[in-house]
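[Q] Does anyone have a clean structure-token version of this?
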Amino acid sequence: MHTAATALATLALLTSTALAQTPSLTIIQPPADLPATRSVALSRDGSTLIGFATSPGRGFTWTRASGYFDYTAANGYVGQYGSFGVSANGATVVGAGFTGGIRAYRAFGTGAPQDLGTPWDASFSEGTKSVIGMWTNQTGTRVIANMQRRIGSSPPEINPFVWTQATNSWQPLIPSQQSL
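[A] Here you go.
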């Protein structure tokens, strides 16, 4: 009898908790001058959506509390920028700028993006490169960039690189797989 009462009480508690979480859907309208907007990532807590708008590429964040924030334009950046990753709590955004080569950045809240340099090392310098994805930890002290390169007509090669605040440099996550 005691087990049945405990199970019934647990079921009642779970039901009331589920009812307290009201699902919703929010339509996010991009600015009129940037009709092609791409959402890229959502923070784990669901508070922050990040992405980029084209053309030109401008990184943005969106929160229910503050709405759409174009941090690229707000901080006077010119050129192509895109956000690719967001921390679990939505406080740190990472991305890349594409004017004059690929340069990674991180931004905290509505602050100006901080340049993190070129997300590859000398072993990855040849060929045409693009960013496949980026991720960051909660504090923005570690950033991973998944980079793709193509040399001539060869199949694309994808390698991850890591930037840490402690070293302020990019290092390959996997040893070079170049042919001898």
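[Q] Thanks! Anything notable?
[A] The two ends are 73 Å apart (CA to CA).
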